[in-house]
Structure formats: structure tokens, C-alpha cells
């Protein structure tokens, strides 16, 4: 038996060139049944591997579904040159420059796990505790990372400034209070800059920075609110939860009064409902000290012609850079 390869196709010596029917392999006739099946499978694999085979071109392989695990890849920063050159990931490089980037929900996973365990049944609690113990060794809480970074930078230099950039929708009150207490206890001055969104208790982190070093980007949205929570059980348990929420609210309100200079009544009005602010309104309320515009102090987000028309109508103030008047006072 002779086997020849023509135009990338595997053909038997007795097969016609234009035939669509593939001749069966004759060498498998001398093999036992088990070896014959294995030998035929090898021929099929060879036929699929040959791109020029017309009969195998109709066979469609399953498409590859590639999934991107990480949509954003942090670049490595090169430090030094020549033989002394080394690479460092982005966040470690920023930390070496005394920059802390706070992004996301500020929480403590251990506290969340305890709250979830109290609401679930006893059988589910045992399974969750095993999973939680494994996750605790693999994951770090954002609040713990921030506190550890602040303490480490203080140990390196007690006088150089620490910059904290905040883009957060809020977080758990216990975690926020822990970060604020750490910011107040360390010696280096802390410059806070908010960008994007700074909602809920994250606004307290911005206000906790050193006076005259608290800033906001020109298009940041800032929001103040009061603690929220729920409880279930008997009347004594519900009363204890309400008392704890009230204690947290009083603590956060005292911090707002200390950082902003607002009165207790103004804090109560601002946190009674979700109060959204522009950077100008946040500066008026005392949460920040300045606005980073990035264009020489001129804000071109509103067309100048529209600003002049609104100024003539009395809807905007020329000193606020074309920001609409909302009538809110603090």
C-alpha cells in the first residue's frame, strides 16, 4: 500500500483525484480491533491538521472563547538604568512617592462576614466560616491597607507630606472611622484630593485632611448622608441596634463639626437626606479648601456665551465660574 500527499490532502493510491469520498485505510486491516480503532483515530487527526484537504474543510472546530480576567493592566515602572535597573508595579511606586489612591468601597471584610453569619442559618454558617477563613488569608481589606500605608509612611518620614486621592462611593462607618482616627493620630501632614465621586462617609475622609490641604477636582460630586442600618429580632435587640446607629451618627457629626466648622443644626440638615454638592458648594460648607481646575483657574465646562446670558438673568454668579445657583445654604 502506498500513501501520497497531494495539495495537502491525504489520499490512498487507489483514490481518484476528484473523488469526494475518502478511501479507507488498508493498513488497519492487519491490526487487531483495539489497535485498528486507535490507528483510524490517528488518521483522522492527521486529516484535520492538513489545511488543504477539501473534505476536512467542511469540519468546523469549536470556537475559542477567550475571557479577559483583568480589564486593566497596571504598568510596571522602571527604576534606575543599566545593571541597577529594576521594575516596580504602579501602586508600590505611588506608595514610594507617598501617594495613596483610595478607590472603591471602604469596608472591612471581617465585619461584613460577621453580619452575614448572624442573618443566616446555623448550617450555612459553618460552611461560610470555612470559606471565610480561606479568603482572609488571600484578600486584604481596603481599610486595613490604607491604615497600614499611613503608618508605614509615618515610620519612613514624620515630616514629609502624604497625599491621599479619594474616589469612593462610601463605606462602612466603622472602617471609615478607623481610617479617620489613623489620619488624626499620625504626625505627617495629609493632603486629600477627591476626584470622580465622593459619596456618603467618604466625604468625611476628604474633610479629615490637614487644613488648607484639602482639595477637589472641578467636576467631582460630593455627597453627605447619615448612617443607615437595620435589625431584626426582639424589641431589646432592635433597641440596641438603634442606640448603636445613634452613637455612630453622633460620632460622625462631631467629626464633621470639627473638620468643617459647621454647627450641629447645619450638619443635621445636610445629613437628614442625601445632600449632593458641587466642589464650590463643598468648599462653602467647609469640606474642602480649594478646587483644582487644571486650566489656569478658568472653568470652560459651560460655554462663555451661555454663562453671560445666565448672568444677565441672575441664575449664576460670576465668582463661581458659571455654577448654577441652587439656593442651598449651610
TrEMBL record:
Using the record for this protein, list the coiled-coil segments as residue ranges, or answer none.
111-143
Q: Which Pfam families match?
A: CLP_protease
Q: Could you give one GO CC term from the UniProt record?
A: endopeptidase Clp complex
Keywords attached to this Swiss-Prot or TrEMBL record, sorted alphabetically, are:
Coiled coil, Hydrolase, Protease
Indicate whether Transmembrane appears among the record's keywords.
Answer: no
Annotated stretches, region: Disordered: 1-22, 36-67
One molecular function GO term is:
serine-type endopeptidase activity
- Which GO biological process categories is it annotated with? protein quality control for misfolded or incompletely synthesized proteins
By sequence similarity, the record places it as follows: Belongs to the peptidase S14 family.
Q: What name is this protein filed under?
A: ATP-dependent Clp protease proteolytic subunit
